[in-house]
Design a protein that fits this description.
It is a single chain. Helices cover 78% and strands 0% of the residues. It is mainly alpha-helical and 281 residues long. The protein has one domain (3-278).
């Protein structure tokens, strides 16, 4: 398995777990409040990695990219958490995944990337798998309102833009773009909570969930940046977009959201797509 594919799959798994935990925390305390805690926690960890574990070239050229990723990233995750609060994780997460993977794939191909025929088959299989994973059983029809679906669509497009910009970071930059972008997002969310939300209940706040979510999410961003520096953005993005599999499985195991037969088939297809893309990256 190629290094880029492995890193992309690790980022996908880590994102899936982070989305699940973040969704749980947001249901208890609100998306903005959770992000105001999870973002700085993740920023500290990813900055430590950028300085001591995977040092890269820190240049002034990275400032503009980092600002853009930070702004778009904060908007995207806030929309995602808002959608997770309103709808089922097993529906919201896959919708965002399809769109977040499509944007960098299109950009990568327009930039001249030429995935193999098998890679295109894997991409199609991955998209189909995510759609199947998003299918609700008849028991759950009507439980995901259109507002949640609309938020998921916009969040998916925003995440796709974020991943595209992150994937265009210089190969020698380590994880600095992911690190600095996370600090920009941190300032945005803290300012929002102070100025707009003005509500923060410290006694009932899910501190552990929020902190773990922030650490996992920031590390996933770092893994994705490293993967995109070592492989085709179009393939890496599709592998990274398989994160709903982890979210759906965790939702099934932990909070007993039902996973029907179609969703189970989608999980198997996602694993098949991951293997196919990994060996053609």
């Amino acid at each position: 398995m190629r290094v880029a594919a492995l890193l992309a799959l690790i980022s996908s798994l880590t994102w899936g777990v982070a989305d699940f935990l973040g969704g749980l925390a947001a249901r208890r305390a609100g998306a903005a409040q959770v992000l105001a805690v999870s973002y700085p926690a993740g920023a500290v960890v990813i900055t430590f990695v950028a300085i001591f574990v995977l040092p890269g070239q820190l240049t002034t050229d990275l400032i503009g990219i980092s600002l853009l990723t930070g702004i778009v990233g904060a908007i995207a995750i806030a929309l995602l958490y808002a959608a997770l609060v309103r709808g089922q994780m097993g529906v919201v997460s896959p919708i965002t995944a399809v769109l977040s993977g499509a944007v960098p794939v299109i950009v990568g191909i327009f930039r001249g990337e030429q995935p193999s025929s098998f890679a295109f088959v894997g991409m199609g299989l991955a998209v189909f798998a995510v759609i199947l994973v998003s299918r609700e059983s008849a028991h759950h029809h009507g439980k995901t309102p259109m507002s949640a679906i609309a938020l998921a669509v916009v969040a998916g497009l925003a995440i796709g833009i974020y991943l595209t910009v992150l994937g265009l970071a210089p190969i020698d930059s380590g994880v600095w773009v992911a690190s600095m972008g996370r600090w920009v997002s941190t300032l945005i969310m803290i300012t929002f909570v102070i100025v707009v939300s003005r509500s923060f209940n410290r006694t009932t706040f899910p501190w552990k969930l929020a902190i773990i979510t922030g650490i996992l999410d920031s590390m996933a961003n770092g893994f994705f940046q490293l993967a995109s520096q070592r492989g085709l953005l179009s393939i890496v993005a599709v592998l990274g977009s398989l994160y709903p599999v982890a979210t759906v499985v965790l939702a099934r195991v932990v909070i007993k959201e039902r996973m029907n037969r179609v969703q189970s088939i989608g999980v198997l297809l996602a694993l098949s797509a991951a293997v196919l893309l990994a060996f053609n990256s």
